[in-house]
């Protein structure tokens, strides 16, 4: 079976380019984050980040925006998907197709659309002001960012959750109803436990998606809102002050944050009944 | 020397032997069945014959030529897969023509042979269909045609009928047998179905856990099983321990005894007294459970009419032909 | 029952409304002559689109985006197809390794990768920063997980081993069999995966802005650089971009559902 090893050669270009554009840059960050300004090994970059109220604020904002937008996005997606499965197939297919397309509607174009809709002179802002629903609305705040992040989380949540709802079989609801459980108790005792892994998994993906998002917030605030991705980018491509090593430490903290979330996710998954196979 | 000779073949995965000490042969135009329960190594053996799986030792001789290390493309062997392995992107005609194209057969000859073989397997008219537009039986015949058209020296079939329902299976079985006789093809047929093996084969090679248990004609395996495993695998046997058989037949045995249910008579004028326990209907045969001298036996009787059915509790007299009592290891 | 179905329809329509709203507002804005401090625009015009599609800088940026995305996808196919075949046929155990590897482009945000890429390729023998080549490399990694998963799903749908064995026995070499038996069965899945990858690659901004910026201005970077210009003009740009995405995803969905083209 000598030709098996010739076949390995076909893997080489793939491995090479994947390494060059994915693995090596990541390794570089890992190493660089432990190199101090004087070129020595040390933890000073991490210390700088964790001692700075500015960077701590960025981390806190990143976490807050990501958490809230993921929770809201997930909740809306659950309610939406649950109803989607109950309407006629034409409406359902139309909405699913549209959701598919809007899942690509993020970043710069989305930020511009939101400025037009909800900016200081946004059409919806003006409408709501005239109707007296709101006094004023500022899109360029934490609340505004949570709103726009939630918007791009919804399509992703719907697309990820829709197939998971296949696991819920109609006859479960019917047999639960025959056994005397109303819709609420059906959800509490059957649907939610069955869906838990999918919900957790989706939540984790949404969270990671929000934590790493850069284009939307950058285009919306021209890099003036303090979240971790904006800080990282400013440290390697900003106009004022460049410190790639500090950027690496910040990037590593972001990756570590995601790793922690994944570990917690795995742990929760093991505790659900699916993990007790 | 026969047309196909397999000598001391063995194969293992890691430390586990898949099969070992495999010796059998097939004459030209003979249909040999490799029969055995799933996991006995028969499918792997077939793949080794084709050259798709390398062997770890032994020799394969085909038509006087050693092919043990020849690439599968150059063995002159064709194979029908259990999954049929039809190329989903090609029509029936293109599937069948594939092997001839690989041999760079001239266009007019290719057309002629493809048309011929499609007629042979009764698929004319379906040339332009894709595999997903065919029924299971039709797919099976495309796979057969694709293997036949290259005029292989040896045709291997790996459980080719197992995915089909019983009626189509019987029909295709007869078709395969007819084509095999017509073309005087040498075939090795793998199956786990003893009925299929009995009805189809010139010779049966019965395997168990990687070893050949018995190798002989269908009749031999049926009437003269070498041991309890063969007896149990080929048809239904009453298998009695030596002391139980001794009690029933009033003499002593040193081995277990196998008695075919159809070789016992229920209405003998004199014989062993017994009582019907119950019965089950197997189509043209009724299988009674009979208790005689404290031993329970299966007895098969032709199902002639409803009125002749014996009710539970009926008293019968059993006669067992001497030549049907076989001691087995 | 009727009340329940009313509720579900209401929820779905609300969901649709929320999803449509920003787009609808942008569309209306792009068609408006003027729209400020009033509920509806003063008048409708197609002028902004005419202006956009005759703007050389836009056309150049659009062309560059097409070029980079097409290049990256061609490159990705060239690397992924043989690799995927070799793994599926010769080294099925490596599939588990691949499934971990292809998580990386998902798990590591582009902004993090950019830090390393900027330092590694700023100078020296591989001074790729500021050129389209680095984008082709990066987009290959972004498209990879998607292409690989889509193609292995397609590959699992056919019985690769049996098909290859059958082709071998009928006299085909491994290369010939892969080309004439395996590849044609992946064609449709490949086209769908490439189209869908294209629809998200053309929206990529982070790598384009951080690694290349105005030195090779792509669509998204151009859009961002136009933010101080007329809102109507950028709206026309956003809608035009979305139309391209719409067209591509629509084509992919059509192809995916069409059973006759398999």
Question: What secondary-structure arrangement, pairings included, does this model have?
Answer:
The complex is a heterotrimer of chains A (277), B (329) and C (262).
Chain A: H1 3-32, H2 44-51, H3 53-84, H4 89-102, H5 107-118, H6 123-131, H7 142-164, H8 170-178, H9 183-212, H10 215-221, H11 228-237, H12 244-271
Helix pairs in contact in A: 1-12, 2-12, 3-7, 3-9, 4-7, 5-10, 7-9, 9-12, 11-12
Chain B: E1 4-13, E2 16-26, E3 31-35, H1 42-50, E4 57-62, E5 65-66, E6 77-80, H2 92-102, H3 107-120, H4 136-148, E7 154-158, H5 166-183, E8 187-191, H6 194-200, E9 203-208, E10 211-217, H7 218-223, H8 228-233, E11 238-240, H9 242-249, E12 256-259, E13 264-265, E14 272-282, E15 285-292, E16 295-302, E17 315-320, E18 325-328
Parallel strand pairs in B: 3-8, 3-9, 6-7, 7-8
Antiparallel strand pairs in B: 1-2, 1-4, 4-5, 9-10, 11-12, 12-18, 13-17, 14-15, 14-17, 15-16
Helix pairs in contact in B: 2-3, 2-4, 3-4
Chain C: H1 2-30, H2 47-53, H3 56-89, H4 94-101, H5 104-107, H6 110-120, H7 132-157, H8 160-169, H9 174-201, H10 206-212, H11 219-225, H12 231-257
Descriptive report:
The complex is a heterotrimer of chains A (277), B (329) and C (262). With 277 residues, chain A is mainly alpha-helical. Chain A has a single domain (63-275), classed as MetI-like fold. Helix content of chain A is 77%, strand content 0%. Chain A is built from 12 helices and no strands. Chain A has helices at residues 3-32, 44-51, 53-84, 89-102, 107-118, 123-131, 142-164, 170-178, 183-212, 215-221, 228-237, 244-271. In chain A, helix 2 (44-51) crosses helix 12 (244-271). Chain A is globular. The two termini of chain A are 39 Å apart. Chain B is α+β, with helices and mostly antiparallel strands. Chain B folds into 2 domains: 4-232, Rossmann fold, CATH 3.40.50.300; 236-328, Beta Barrel (OB fold (Dihydrolipoamide Acetyltransferase, E2P)), CATH 2.40.50. In chain B, 28% of the residues lie in helices and 33% in strands. Chain B has 9 helices and 18 strands. A 6-stranded mixed β-sheet of chain B has the order 6-7-8-3-9-10, sandwiched between helices. In chain B, strands 13-17-14-15-16 form a 5-stranded antiparallel β-sheet. In chain B, strands 2-1-4-5 form a 4-stranded antiparallel β-sheet, covered by helices on one side. In chain B, strand 15 and strand 16 form a beta hairpin. Chain C is mainly α and 262 residues long. Chain C is globular. In chain C, 48% of the residues are buried. The mean pLDDT of chain C is 89. At the A-C interface, helix 1, helix 3, helix 4, helix 5 and helix 6 of A face helix 1, helix 3, helix 5, helix 6 and helix 7 of C.
């Amino acid at each position: 079976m000598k030709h098996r090893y010739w076949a390995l050669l076909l893997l080489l270009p793939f491995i090479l380019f994947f390494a060059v554009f994915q693995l090596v840059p990541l390794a570089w960050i890992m190493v660089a984050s432990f190199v101090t300004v004087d070129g020595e090994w040390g933890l000073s970059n991490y210390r700088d980040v964790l001692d700075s109220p500015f960077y701590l604020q960025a981390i806190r904002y990143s976490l807050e925006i990501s958490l809230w937008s993921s929770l809201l996005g997930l909740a809306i997606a659950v309610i939406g998907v649950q109803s989607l499965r109950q309407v006629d197939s034409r409406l359902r297919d139309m909405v699913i197709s549209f959701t598919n397309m809007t899942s690509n509607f993020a970043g710069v174009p989305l930020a511009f659309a939101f400025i037009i809709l909800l900016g200081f002179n946004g059409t919806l802002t003006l409408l709501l002001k005239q109707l007296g629903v709101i006094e004023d609305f500022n899109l360029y705040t934490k609340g505004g960012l949570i709103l726009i992040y939630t918007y791009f989380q919804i399509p992703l949540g719907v697309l990820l959750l829709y197939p998971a709802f296949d696991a819920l079989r109609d006859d479960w609801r019917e047999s639960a109803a025959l056994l005397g459980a109303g819709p609420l108790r059906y959800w509490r005792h059957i649907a939610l436990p069955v869906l838990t892994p999918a919900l957790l998994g989706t939540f984790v993906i949404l969270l990671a998606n929000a934590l790493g998002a850069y284009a939307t917030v950058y285009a919306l605030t021209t890099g003036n809102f303090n979240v971790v991705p904006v800080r990282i980018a400013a440290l390697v491509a900003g106009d004022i002050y460049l410190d790639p090593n500090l950027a690496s430490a910040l990037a590593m903290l972001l990756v570590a944050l995601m790793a922690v979330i994944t570990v917690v996710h795995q742990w929760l998954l093991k505790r659900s009944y699916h993990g007790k196979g | 020397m026969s047309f196909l000779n397999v000598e001391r073949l063995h194969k293992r995965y890691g430390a586990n032997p898949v099969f070992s000490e495999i010796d059998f042969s097939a004459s030209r135009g003979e249909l040999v069945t490799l029969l055995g329960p799933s996991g006995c190594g028969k499918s792997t053996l077939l793949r080794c014959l084709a050259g798709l799986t390398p062997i770890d030792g032994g020799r394969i001789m085909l038509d006087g030529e050693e092919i043990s290390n020849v690439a599968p493309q150059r063995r002159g062997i064709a194979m029908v897969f259990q999954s049929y392995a039809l190329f989903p992107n090609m029509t029936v005609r293109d599937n069948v023509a594939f092997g001839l194209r690989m041999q760079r057969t001239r266009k007019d000859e290719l057309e002629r042979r493809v048309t011929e073989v499609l007629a042979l397997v009764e698929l004319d008219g379906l040339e332009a269909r894709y595999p997903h537009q065919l029924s299971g039986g039709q797919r099976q015949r495309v796979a057969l045609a694709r293997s036949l058209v290259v005029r292989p020296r040896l045709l291997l079939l790996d459980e080719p009928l197992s995915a089909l329902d019983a009626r189509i299976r019987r029909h295709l079985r007869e078709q395969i047998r007819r084509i095999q006789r017509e073309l005087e093809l040498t075939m090795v047929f793998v199956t786990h179905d003893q009925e299929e093996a009995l009805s189809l084969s010139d010779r049966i090679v019965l395997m168990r856990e990687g070893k050949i248990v018995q190798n002989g004609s269908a009749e031999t395996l049926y009437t003269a099983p070498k041991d309890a495993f063969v007896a149990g695998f080929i048809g239904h046997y009453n298998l009695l321990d030596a002391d139980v058989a001794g009690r029933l037949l009033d003499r002593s045995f040193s081995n277990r005894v196998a008695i075919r249910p159809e070789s016992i008579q229920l209405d003998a004028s004199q014989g062993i007294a017994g009582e019907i326990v119950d019965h089950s209907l197997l189509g043209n045969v009724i299988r009674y459970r009979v208790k005689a001298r404290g031993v329970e036996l299966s007895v098969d009787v032709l199902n002639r009419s409803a009125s002749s059915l014996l009710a539970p509790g009926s008293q019968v007299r059993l006669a067992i032909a001497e030549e049907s009592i076989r001691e087995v290891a | 029952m009727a009340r329940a179905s009313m509720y579900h329809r209401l929820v779905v329509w609300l969901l649709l409304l929320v999803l449509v709203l920003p787009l609808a507002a942008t569309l209306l804005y792009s068609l408006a002559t003027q729209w400020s401090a009033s509920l509806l625009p003063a008048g409708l015009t197609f002028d902004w689109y005419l202006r956009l599609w005759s703007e050389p800088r836009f056309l150049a940026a659009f062309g560059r985006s097409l070029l980079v995305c097409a290049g990256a996808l061609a490159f990705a196919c060239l690397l992924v197809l043989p690799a995927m075949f070799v793994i599926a046929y010769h080294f099925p155990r490596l599939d588990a390794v691949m499934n971990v590897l292809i998580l990386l482009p998902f798990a590591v945000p582009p902004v993090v990768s950019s830090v390393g890429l900027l330092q590694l390729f700023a100078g020296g023998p591989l001074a790729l920063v500021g050129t389209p080549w680095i984008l082709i490399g990066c987009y290959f990694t972004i498209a990879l997980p998607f292409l690989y998963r889509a193609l292995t799903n397609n590959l699992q749908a056919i019985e690769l081993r049996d098909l290859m064995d059958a082709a071998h026995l009928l006299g085909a070499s491994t290369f010939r069999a892969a080309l004439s038996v395996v590849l044609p069965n992946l064609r449709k899945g490949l086209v769908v995966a490439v189209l869908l990858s294209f629809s998200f690659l053309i929206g990529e901004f982070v790598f384009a802005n951080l690694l290349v910026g105005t030195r090779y201005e792509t669509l998204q970077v151009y859009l961002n650089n136009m933010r101080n210009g007329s809102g109507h003009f950028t709206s026309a740009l956003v809608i035009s971009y979305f139309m391209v995405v719409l067209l591509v995803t629509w084509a992919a969905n059509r192809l995916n559902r069409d059973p006759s083209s398999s």
